[in-house]
Structure formats: structure tokens, C-alpha cells
Amino acid sequence: MDIPEESTTKENVQMTQKPRRTFTDEQKAEAVRIVGQSGKPVSQVAQEMGLTESALRKWVKQAQVDRCSDTEGALTSAERQELTALRRDLKRVRMERDFLKKAATFFARESSDPMS
Questions:
Q1: Is 34 within 8 Å of 52 (Cβ atoms)?
Q2: Which sequence spans correspond to the domains of the chain?
Q3: For every one of its 116 residues, what pLDDT tens digit does the chain have, with 9 covering 90 and above?
Q4: Which are the contacts of 49, defined by CB distance < 8 A and separation ≥ 6?
Q5: Within 10 A of 44 (CB to CB), how many other CB atoms are there?
Q6: Which terminus of the chain has fewer Cβ atoms in its 10 Å neighbourhood, N or C?
Q7: End-to-end Cα spacing for the chain
Q8: In which region does residue 54 sit, left (phi positive, over 0), alpha (psi from -120 to 50) or beta (all else)?
Q9: What are the contacts of 89-92 at 24+ separation with CB within 8 A?
Q10: Using the 8-state DSSP alphabet, how is residue 61 labeled?
């Protein structure tokens, strides 16, 4: 007797996962402030606020990086946003360059064709 294997397609995985929650910068800052001022462990604050512990730890760590400019190798939030924008622009410029290369090749062939 064959037991059908459950497919692990993208659709099935998405159906079993909870929808991804998003938080405003103000909500993140408030959670970080509570961790810093209350003296409670991150795990307790996360549980009280209905957050995952890993997300809150990440926010606390990023807030520390943003406050201290001497953190080696870590990017501030502003630097991270700038890097994302620069990568997006670079991708667009590369696509434009590739298109222009193809167009130049096409028109070079057209002009050298004796039949035209």
C-alpha cells in the first residue's frame, strides 16, 4: 500500500507558516527601550510583548550599533538602507548596460548587412 508523500511545494509551506508580522520603527524602539530600562531579560520582555526572542535580540543589537559608531564591521540602520539603495541602483544600471550592449550589437549587424 502506497502512502502518498506530502508535497513540500512553496504553496504548502506558506500555508503552514504564520503570516509575517511587520513592526514600525516606533514599535521597535519602544521594545528596545523597555529592555534597556526595565532590567528584565530579553526573553521575558519578548514574551510579554508577543514578540519572538530572536527578533527582539536583533533589534536590541541593532540599536546598540546605531548608538555606538565604534562597532567594528557592523552597519548602522542608515548605512544598511544606503547599501540596499546602492545595490538596487547598481542592478538597474547593469541591466541598462546589458540592454545597450545588445542594441549596439543588433544595429552593428543591421548596418553591415549588404541586403539592407
A1: no
A2: 22-72, 75-116
A3: 555 555 556 666 556 777 888 889 899 999 999 999 998 999 999 999 999 999 999 999 988 888 876 656 778 888 889 999 999 999 999 999 999 999 999 999 988 876 65
A4: 31, 34, 56
A5: 12
A6: N
A7: 68
A8: alpha
A9: none
A10: H
Residue 85, amino acid:
A
Rama region for 15: left / alpha / beta (φ>0; ψ in -120 to 50; rest):
alpha
Whole-number Cα distances in Å, 46 to 41, 55, 63: 9, 9, 16
82 by DSSP, 3-state: which? Answer: helix
Q: Positive or negative, the Cα torsion across 83, 86, 92, 95? A: negative
Q: Which long-range contacts (CB under 8 A, 24 or more apart) does 57-65 make?
A: 59/28, 59/31, 59/32, 60/32, 60/35, 60/36, 63/29, 63/32
CA 31, 33, 34: angle at the middle one, nearest 5?
65
